[in-house]
Amino acid sequence: MCVMRCARGRTQGSELRAARTSLDPGRRRISFNLAPGHCAVRGMTVLCRALAVLISTVHSLAVFCGLAQTPLVITHAPAGRTRTLREVWFAQLMRKVLELVLRTRLRGPATELVSASAAGAPVSGYVMAICHSPWARLLGAWCGLTRFALVVAPERWERRVGGHALVRPGVLELRKLVQHLRAGGRAVVIADVRASDEGITVPFLGRRRRFWSLPGRLATCAGVPLLPVFPRWERGRLRVDFGPVIRAPRAGSHPEELTRLLLTCCDRAIRDRPALLLRGELSLAR
Hints:
The protein is of the alpha/beta class. About 50% of the residues lie in helices and about 15% in strands. The chain is built from twelve helices and nine strands.
């Protein structure tokens, strides 16, 4: 009789667990998110957030006492200096952590932090442009794993992105990329790469700088629009926001015009959220 009661208890317990699972469609998803790899990544995120609060508080105090300075783009940010410093330091700390995490078995769980929605973007065939962002390595790995887009980057990025998704900035490679874009594909390129001789000179974050015009040239040669990309951390995930679609203002427009419009859009976005840019690049801003 005792054996029968124990067996009946186990049966009822299993039935109750099955009923809870069937009534809660998110139960399986929650258990998946609590896998060891995901817990490790979430723990690193929480740690970086706590350190960012501490460092930004000390930084703000040092600025108040006249022992440190901040660029005007941070001082005049709409969110205020203290909150902006917290966002900037968090992004820089996460960049260092992800640089190590993406080389380990936690690469998959880390890329699942990215949340991108193509709402408002063209149906197919466009060039996405991103500034020197602290999230660039994570986004590159995400593009490689999901095959969302090809990435135009130097050869050293092959391990970060994957050989199948990397496009080196050479003549033959770029010709193939143009054909890929014309066929409806997507590509990601850095918008604010400084150039020495060739390129265009535009005011950017309070200084006149010379940048390469590759984003505009790619879009013009392939006949596709430019789309600025602005990643931001929100509610425990990296959300990828797409800026306004940039098309040639008129027929026969020069590629440099598209690049100038792109950099102007990036300038406005960075002034609104300085954490979009690497801290080293922010130190050059006014």
